[in-house]
Amino acid sequence: MARPMRLNTGRLLLSPYTPEDYPALRALHTDPSVTAYISWPPDTPEQTRALLDRRCAQGEPPVQGGTAMTLAVRLPSGLLIGEAQLRRRTPEPATGTIGYVIAPECAGLGYATEVAGALLRFGFESLHLERITGECDPANSASRRVLEKLGMRRVDHVRGHEQDVVYAIEAGRYETSNPTRRWSAGPTST
Length: 190
Fold this sequence. Notes:
8 strands; Aminopeptidase; alpha+beta
């Protein structure tokens, strides 16, 4: 039996969802300061429950040959404070895209940078991706700063929720600067 995927940043744990995550996930998906910068409208209670049920049923997130892994971002207490995702874009060249959401009450504590850094490290060092991108709303200056702190460079615009900006970092640049060296992103088991 496969052990659940977990990434540890030292202060945070990125791990599979549990049914007990419903209240925190519901709060996250309906907070106007969160939904202002993402492509989905606030969820109904039924939509949040269905999403959580799908994520819990997913079990081990597909990462190697699959399309995406979405993990709950937790404090050491186990409280869900956000979400993290790494999606594989295409097999050749091996490209991924990271995404993250942190609860507003936890903003400004460096958690988003840790989460994004752990995703970069896992994507490059464990999945051997050649390029990783991140997209954000141009008005989301905090998210832009996170991507820039990690050595990502603005490369494009994409039509989506408004007109998102795209940041990217290549494996060679990551290996040279390795901006995430202090965050562990190796899979751990329970």
